[in-house]
Design brief:
The chain has one domain: Trna Endonuclease, Chain: A, domain 1, CATH 3.40.1350.10. Helix content is 30%, strand content 37%. The protein has three helices and five strands. It has a five-stranded mixed beta sheet with strand order 1-2-3-4-5. Strand 2 and strand 3 form a beta hairpin. It is globular and about 40 Å long. 23% of the residues are buried.
């Protein structure tokens, strides 16, 4: 997300996750495969977070907008990020779905691998 609306959504998601005890590792990490909105740490687990904002639930809402194509891009970007680390931590992919002023929907382990 690069728009002001997207930045606001990411800040809202980050604040929400921090209140749940997660720590920010990186924001808007970019590589040739794409961008990871937030990389957070939950204990020993590294979490790649996709933030999705939708004002309407047409077509399934925010969570449903993380398509298999988007998942593949996130997985490739995460692999690139992990290649920069000396040791590989346990990892997962989460989605924080936002809609208007409703509480964030935190989908832990939203997807594992796409094939």
């Amino acid at each position: 997300m690069s728009s002001l609306l997207g930045q606001t959504a990411e800040a809202r998601a980050e604040a929400f996750l921090k209140t749940r005890g997660l720590k920010l590792v990186a924001r808007n990490w970019r590589c040739r495969f794409g961008e990871i909105d937030l990389i957070m740490q939950d204990g020993t687990v590294l979490i790649f977070v996709e933030v999705r904002l939708r004002n309407h639930n047409d077509f399934g809402g925010a969570a449903a907008s993380v398509t298999p194509t988007k998942q593949k891009k996130l997985l490739a970007a995460a692999r690139q990020y992990l290649s920069t680390l000396k040791t590989l931590p346990p990892c997962r992919f989460d989605v924080v779905a936002l809609s208007s002023n409703a509480p964030p929907e935190w989908i832990k382990n939203a997807f594992d691998d796409v094939g």
